[in-house]
């Protein structure tokens, strides 16, 4: 049995905690916040991630997730359909559905599974208001802001975009930078009831269950994405664009409130019907989009990275949370049966399983599902040219069809039997 220390109780950190708990290890998660209010709006739970959480006991219906039915790309002025992709065969093709979830609902479910007294393995212990400020990767330990040092056998650094763990692994600073194509977004939620009450906006509710709508203005580098969550009672909207002013964004710009007039001006020229929907928002947050190029290593000594600390992603492929879940699942498989002397060897396996695939999706996430040609050259470092997705359907196949549990188990069996 290992004593595992996880820095960060986000989606990746909690998933790693659950997986390592199920592998028989004692897990302590250190979270800087009080977790009273999980930040964020909605999130996709695609087949490549959801199949594993469901096998652990997560019930999408009880969590009020919405099953995806289709995606439509729409002209922002005429609202005419430009392209469409159906998700009706996801279960048949990939063994699981694509779900749209409120981030709070997903996070609460993960926390419940992690700490459930009746689950497999020792319940995960979550330490709140415990800010990790330093790591020792040789004598595995965390340094907390209160001066306390916590020792263990294995450290998982899941401390997010501005990761101290990543800098520790690389031995240098690795700040996020502005992406080339889209660098800012507005996020907001609108209750379906608010739209239904107004004749100018009730159209947005029609046939909305399980539907993702993308209103795309490629010439103006603007995109508006919308889908429902929480049992179809809430519309999640994300307006994505490029803004030179974002180059000066600071941490204080994250989740800063924005006036509706700013948003409607940004999307000026979109159909008046869309502007009417935006005007129903009561709270809009701005969110600078930052990017880090794939890193050359994920581990050092007895520590490895997971989630955004390893592979922060822009939202265009809706795979950020899913890739953090894949990290956690892989850790659970690889560390089953491990003892302290095995840690470094097992971390090598973890990096082999995860770094290449996550790097591909990290690069693809810099552009829309219809724009993979813009990052084709960057992908050649990781994929043969014939493997590079060229359209949304191929993107979905590459992302949804992967089973990280099987890949990790196969590599582990091959390496440990040599």
TrEMBL record:
It comes from the Eukaryota. Belongs to the paxM FAD-dependent monooxygenase family. PANTHER family: FAD-BINDING DOMAIN-CONTAINING PROTEIN-RELATED, MONOOXYGENASE. InterPro entries: FAD-bd, FAD-dep_Monooxygenase_BioMet, FAD/NAD-bd_sf. This is FAD binding domain-containing protein. Residues 150-358 form the FAD-binding domain. The keyword Oxidoreductase applies. Keywords: FAD, Flavoprotein, Monooxygenase, Oxidoreductase. GO terms for molecular function: FAD binding; monooxygenase activity. Pfam families: FAD_binding_3, NAD_binding_8. The keyword Flavoprotein applies. Pathway: Secondary metabolite biosynthesis.
